[in-house]
Amino acid sequence: MSKTKLTLGVTTALVAFAAATVAPEAAAHAAKKAHKHAKKAAVQTIETHTSSFSHSNSNAKVDALEAQLAAMQAEIRGLKSASTRATIDPDTAKVQELDQWMNTVKHEGHAGKGAKDDMVFFRGGYSHLNDNRGSTNGSGADLLVGASKTDKDAWYFGAGFDWSINDNLFGLMQGTEFAAELMFDYKEISGHTTSALTGQGVTTNQFTLAASPKIKFMKGSSFRPWLIPVGFEMNIISPPSGAVTVMTPGMQFGAGMDYKVWKDLYVGADARYHYTADNIDGVNTDGVTAGGYVGFGF
Fold first, then answer.
1. Residue 57, CA distances (Å) to 7, 53, 70 in order
2. Residue from 222, 211, 220, 223 nearest 179 by CA
3. What are the pLDDT digits (tens) for 162-188?
4. Is the dihedral angle over the CA atoms 281, 282, 288, 289 positive or is it negative?
5. DSSP string, 97-150
6. What is the Cα–Cα distance from 214 to 164, expressed in whole angstroms?
7. pTM of the model
């Protein structure tokens, strides 16, 4: 074998050995590089999915927190309301109810309150006595006061007040008003009494002061009938009786009606019977009065 061929063979063997040695390292390097790129791509994909998931998860958490916060606020409001109702003082509740009732009355108007309930009235009319007035017993007092020459007829005028107490007769009858009446009148009897001592004429008259319960029906109506079951009165007579007595107690019974003409202006008519259990030392004041009146609500 020549030297040239020997050199060529050695060179070929070295190249083959180098190629065999380098090829696995290159393959490994390429595989390593491909694996690195694949890993990086996978990491990026995972990061992308993770970021998307994290964003969605974050929104869901925010929504859940908002829902919980709204529920807590509603619960707090409910607790505050319950606490307020539980801590209201009974007296405060009554005051609030009274205020509400007063506001309702002012807004809607109380039943029958189209006019004022209390009244002042001025009355007058005719009176008829059961017996003649004056002393007829022949006593020495007749010299002072004179013997009776009067008849049984008289006229009267007076005034009075009605004070409303309740609108339902103490809960027994709705729309039926219970009132208290205070009334006075002056009565002058026809005819004339002459004093045997002085020869002068004596005016025969009587003053009556009465206090009575009054029941008025049909509250809220313009027309309202009423009655007085029984009332107390005190009578002062002039001239005095034969025993010089001037005062006698008695009772009255009455019935009448009111009619509202305009706003708080009323007209009415009444009839009353006046009774005393006994005469006042020979003078009888029993009799009837009947007449009309004009009233003003206040």
1. 73, 6, 20
2. 211
3. 999 999 999 999 999 999 999 999 999
4. negative
5. HHHHHHHHHHHH--TTTTS-S-EEEEEEEEEEESS--SB-S--TTHHHH-B--E
6. 9
7. 0.58
Question: What gap in Å lies between CA 267 and CA 114, rounded to an integer?
Answer: 16
User: What are the extents of the domains in the chain?
Assistant: 1-87, 119-297
User: Do the Cβ atoms of 128 and 154 come closer than 8 Å?
Assistant: yes
The rounded distance, in Å, linking the Cα atoms of 106 and 89 is: 26
How far, in Å, CA of 241 to CA of 139, rounded?
10
> Which tokens go with 34?
């491909």
Dist. CA 241–CA 244, nearest whole Å = 5
User: What's the CA gap between 127 and 158, in Å, rounded?
Assistant: 13
What does the alpha-carbon distance between residue 208 and residue 203 come to, in Å, rounded to a whole number? 16
Residue matched to tokens 């019977």? 273
Instruction: Determine the Cα–Cα distance for residues 80 and 93; give it in Å rounded to an integer.
Output: 18
Q: How far is CA 186 from CA 86, 127, 176, 200, 205, in A?
A: 63, 11, 31, 22, 7
CATH of 119-297, one of 2.40.160.20, 3.60.15.10, 3.20.20.70, 2.120.10.90: 2.40.160.20
Q: What pLDDT digit, counting tens, does each position of 134-149 carry?
A: 544 444 445 445 555 5
Contacts of 181 (CB under 8 A, 6+ apart): 160, 161, 162, 163, 210, 211, 212, 213, 214, 228, 231
Nearest to 136 by CA among 243, 33, 277: 243
Q: Extract the tokens encoding 19.
A: 């190629």
CA 102-103-109 angle, 5° bins: 80
Which tokens go with 198? 């002085």
Place of tokens 């005034």: 159
